[in-house]
Amino acid sequence: MGNDSEANEPESSEFHPSADQLVEHNRQVADAVRTPGMAAPPSRHVAIVTCMDARIDPLAELGLTVGEAHVIRNAGGVMTDDVVRSLCISQQLLGTREILVIHHTKCGMCGLDEAAFSSVLGQRLGARPSWPICSFADPADDVRAAIATLRASPFIEHDTAVRGFIYDVDTGLLDEVAALSQ
Hints:
Shape: globular
Strand content: 15-25%
Helix content: 25-40%
Number of strands: 5
Strand order of the largest sheet: 2-1-3-4-5
Structural class: alpha/beta
Mean pLDDT: 91
Low-confidence stretches: 1-6
Largest sheet: 5 strands, mixed
Number of helices: 5
């Protein structure tokens, strides 16, 4: 789903079901990746909210390993009610005290025409979404809005360190986004 066309649909010749291959891979690596005895709370007490974009590997990009952080992903890395819900649970039940909001360059949600996308869904699927699509015009502005939302939320601890960044998919670097003054 890019912002330069109403709908990008994979061509049937490009689509290859891979669930069976992935399950087979799991069987081969299960002994190496299992985490018996590892505690559920992230050891670095950090939660990361980022996009589901396949080009992003937040653990690798931040030098983290399994067990060190919670990673919450959605289309655009936007601050939805469900993200706040997950962050609240992360804090209240699992002890996180720092939140990183990370958007990225070349995001398909940036500049997406929500009305056109909703119309395409209506035509293809026979229904329009009841949920917000949550596109944005500028990733830095959306990061600032997310930080403000988290700082104002009664469900996020008031002393939580909340910082925002833009990840450049071409360079692999993070640029910090200055939050709005409180």
